[in-house]
Fold:
Amino acid sequence: MTTTKTETILRRRDGSMTGSGRRAPRSWTDVALNVWGVLVLLFLFAPIIVIVIYSFNTGRLLVSFDGFGFDAFRTILDKPAVQSAVRVSLITAFISAIIATTLGTLAGIAMARHPGRWVWWFLGLLLLVSVTPEIVDAVALLPWFVTLGQDWGMPIFNDGYVRLSIGSSLFATAVVSYLVRARLVGQDANLEEASADLYATSFTTFRRVTLALAMPAVLAGFLLAFTLSLDNTIVAAFVQVSGTTPWPVYVLSAVRSGLRPEVAAVSTIMLALTLVALAVVAVVLKRAGDSATDIARTMGGA
Amino acid sequence: MPERPSTPKSLGGLLAVPAWVWLLVFFVAPVGMVVWFSFGYKPGVFGTHANDVLSFERYLEALSPTFFATFQNTLWVGLLGTALCFLIGAPVAYWMAFKVRADRRGLLIALVLIPFWTNFLIRTIGWQVILAPEGWLSTGLQSLGILGGPLDLLYSRTAVLIGVVYNYLPLMILPLFVAFDRVGPAVREASKDLGGGKVSTFLRVTLPLSRPGVVAGVLLVFIPLMGDYITATVLGGAKGNMVGQLVASQFQTAQNWALGSAMAVVLMLVIALSIGAAALVLWLIALPFRTRNRLVLGPSTGSGTGAGGGPSTGSGTGAGGGPSTGSGTGGGAAAELSEAAS
Structure:
């Protein structure tokens, strides 16, 4: 199960190639595809490279590059607003990832192991959550929180952290549910049955067999949920309360008032963190025996 | 899958209850409230919404000529952006699935994923830096003599189009790659052996077999693109004119929740209708081909329902790949092949 069809056959073919000698000359379509692929990858990386380079801009404004230096990174230390925005983002992303992972794991296990007509309804709901444009979620959650917090007397929903955590947990819950379900559907329930036959209680079976089987998807789901929540801009811009402005919303307001190099500096640091998170996910999935394709499917959130 | 007798059915399904409750309370209820608001009105300068008189007037207002132009523009950007994403992304996915050495694919997937998981807003700001009239692209093109004056792209519809194509491209490449990879080289080589050329192998074997991936990619790009707010704000400025911005401004600046809600509902309807229309058109186009090309091999292959959601996850990864593992795809492939042979 560790290799896909293509990989197995390609490997076999490569083996026979080395036996028979030189590779056939490449056709012009192959060359064109190679060039195109590299060009598109460059296109995908262009703005990211630009941001990383411009984080070393010593000028006053982000757009015009004055000189090379670490001023922007030093400025972060002097700006409590930036630090607080990043802190709010990290805290709410963590809370919302915990919520999404818990709810999504339970739901994914339920869908995979206890199928029935309800699964289709639930999948429909998850689909609806994931296809609804974020702007609709955002404009829906704002009046809803106002209604809950002010009209119905539940002051907890006036709290910035609570609002942000809930707002970014919705899509993340759907993603984790898909991941956990996909992982468990691919594996038989034999192990759980064996565990039950060996007189394990259903809770022990759940904890030591089902959850253990789902663990790679749960971990990947947690990290993806964390990254998604860290990214959450639109919903956050609507539901935030002044005083708990998350990082993307801070940046969005800076877009209007003038971007400064420290935005790029913080982004470069966050990019490094995202890379670490992604690498961890990839390693976890690889250890669990996923092929490159499986990883692509998992991380693409589909 | 048979029911397991060891745990009662009702108890297992209950594991999903927290997620049900969470999504009902924080997704279905708020969206329902938006739909409810859309039938109300803005009571005065200080009120945001009132629902004591219900009417469809906000919808008429949302479809008035000024707003209609924005809807038109959004649909145009959405359709063109999705088409461009497909045209740019499909060759890349094809390249990754068939032309790249197997041990390099993990790296390439990572390279596509990194931009996808980088902060959306930051990536878009990266484009703002690139496209700015005083940026390096502009000065570079001017010093090369390609441009007479500063680059005049930022805050235009073209800039928004570049931005959305860039931002949603990974969402097209990944599902297409997965779909192409599932096709595998076996049936493609078979097609070649049976005399199919490059183009006919792609059009008659690879593309039909990867239809679920194509559908997934198009939907994954088109839907968020239509609701886009960030790209249009950062790269389009005041002239960005996407519905997302319009909805946002009704809630944030105009404080007219009733009209904003109606616009949000219209946006969702437009998305649903255009997907429905596209599905209908594709179905009509495919109809003559289906009746001509499809050869049903025996009664067991489920009468050629290849479109139904694709094979279940991860089951078709066995190296055999015959009709026994993925019966839907395998059957379809066999049918296409025997057609290619005749």
